[in-house]
Each structure stands twice: as structure tokens, then as C-alpha cells.
């Protein structure tokens, strides 16, 4: 991957994500931590929330649409309050929520599925009007091999498990710097 995040940058992003959600829950203006210039670089990112080891929300942007710090702020709020799979987060649940951030590297169209390395690459598939993405850590967390990872990204897009073999499907890989509050 062509970028690295320092421990200070990771902590700033985690504090920013937590403040983004917490300020909304408390009905107050956010008190943002000081932000190094390096976090103004445009990057895609996902914010994942878990409670008791279970997914509680995950929203992100694959491609940069602005500074990384702004992406993390908005994706943290979206994961907490806009993920359609879950009700909005509430104050009582918040203290048990763990934040994980995945800062994405650039997308690369795959020439061969042999180029997918489990635990290193995330997958993004597009076919027609359907698209799906799985972050690099998902295959490791579920114990999937490459074939299962490919099948699951297809299912995430609402496609048949083998849709990645169809010449009309576009399959991309990407790397991510993944870190959480307990790292």
C-alpha cells in the first residue's frame, strides 16, 4: 500500500469518529481534536461499529470525495444513525460500542483472481446496476478462502455466487489500513 498512518493519525481519526457520534447523541456541537495536515488528503474510508462483538453499523465511501478527516466524521455518523440494517444508535448503547476504521487505498481492476490475497485485499464487484464491497478483514474474520470471498462479494451485490466469472462483471481489489479503539 502506498500510504501509512502514524499512531497519532490513527488516534485522531478514532477520536474524531467517536466525537462525531457522541456530539449528536448529546445534542451539542462537536469538539474536534486537533487535526494534522496529513489527514486532509482525500481517501475513501469505512467506519464500522460493533457492540458485544456484533456488527452494529458500517458505512463508507470507496473513493475519495474530500479530506479523509471529513470522510471519517460523516461515515461515523452514518454508521451510527443511517445504516438501514439497524435502528439508530441510542445513548444507552453507545458506551459499549467499539469503532473500527478502514482507510482505503486505490482500487485496482483485477486481471486474475489469483491476485487476491486473503487478509490483504478487499473486493469490489460491479455488474450492471448491482455492486458490492467487502473489506479486507471480512474474509479473515469469517475464515473464508479466496473462492468463498469471491462468492460472498457477489452475494453482497445481490448477484449469484459465481457472477465474478461473467465477462460483464468488473472485479476490483484494494488494500486498507484497518485499526480500532482496542488496537
Which tags fit this structure?
alpha+beta, 4 helices, single chain, 183 residues, 28% helix, 2 domains, Dna Ligase, domain 1, Glycoprotein, Type 4 Pilin
Q: How would you characterize this protein structure?
A:
This protein is α+β, with helices and mostly antiparallel strands. It has 2 domains: 7-104, Glycoprotein, Type 4 Pilin; 108-177, Hypothetical protein ph0010, domain 2 (Dna Ligase, domain 1, 2-Layer Sandwich). 28% of the residues lie in helices and 25% in strands. It has 4 helices and 8 strands. The protein has helices at residues 7-26, 68-81, 136-142, 146-156, and strands spanning 45-51, 54-61, 97-104, 108-109, 122-127, 130-134, 170-174, 176-180. The strands form 2 sheets. It has a 4-stranded antiparallel beta sheet, covered by helices on one side. Strands 4-7-5-6 form a 4-stranded antiparallel beta sheet. A hairpin with a 2-residue loop joins strand 1 (45-51) and strand 2. Helix 1 crosses helix 2. The chain is globular and about 50 Å long. The model has no long low-confidence stretch (mean pLDDT 94).
